[in-house]
Design goal:
Immunoglobulin-like
Length: 223
């Protein structure tokens, strides 16, 4: 006899959370066709990946905010005794203030990036809840689709897009011959990203492509 399960709606208030399953009575028909189930699985993969990206972005924002707050306290302390500072100390204080302004600018840009990602996540989640949640599917279809997706991943290529600030930095992928261009199609694997700019500190990071397109935001630090 056929056995069916039903997808559970994503109703959590935060961005994380995966679909669960609950058993239906034997003999009920599946609401989702195999094609629809395939689309729902892809939506879930996008949700999980986007949730991880948002969680990482929020962690970075938290650390950046802590650094800004700590610098602000140090600046206020030095300002309170500015009359007793030497010219050299005042110059150092002004440099710290300049770096603080740059740090705040970076923080605000990252907040904007994070807001866009959260909006995208909410849009995907809404689509999942409308088209997939509380709808049953055939477990045999699920098993077949997972096998098909695993096979497809090995031979598929996915786009890599790097949103860089400043935009005129030079982006290179060091471990492959092709030159980077926005949306370059790459096989699943790890890629050595190296970014340079005459006025900014060099940036290097390994980025992994698994089974979906990768879109990342990178903000260079001034020298």
């Amino acid at each position: 006899m056929k056995f069916f399960v039903v997808m559970v709606a994503l109703l959590c208030s935060n961005v994380s959370g995966a679909t669960g399953d609950k058993a239906l009575d034997t003999g009920e028909k599946a609401n989702l066709t195999k094609e629809q189930l395939h689309d729902c699985i892809l939506l879930q993969k996008k949700l999980n990946k986007q949730a991880n990206i948002i969680e990482q972005a929020n962690s970075e924002l938290k650390l950046l905010k802590q650094e800004i707050d700590k610098r602000a306290i140090d600046i206020d302390k030095q300002r309170s005794k500015v009359k007793n500072l030497s010219n050299k100390q005042i110059e150092n204080l002004n440099n710290i203030i300049t770096k603080q302004k740059q740090l705040i600018g970076t923080y605000n840009i990252k907040v904007d990036f994070s807001t866009v990602k959260i909006t995208n996540y909410q849009t995907i989640k809404e689509s999942f809840n409308i088209n997939c949640a509380d709808k049953s599917y055939d477990v045999d279809d699920m098993e077949l689709i997972i096998v098909e997706l695993d096979k497809k991943t090995k031979f598929s290529k996915y786009s890599l897009t790097i949103n860089l600030i400043p935009a005129d930095g030079k982006i290179r992928i060091m471990n492959i011959p092709p030159k980077y261009n926005s949306g370059i199609l790459l096989k699943p694997g790890k890629y050595d990203i190296y970014i340079t700019h005459s006025a900014y500190i060099d940036y290097r990071e390994w980025i992994e492509i698994e089974d979906s397109d990768v879109n990342i935001d990178i903000i260079l630090k001034k020298k």
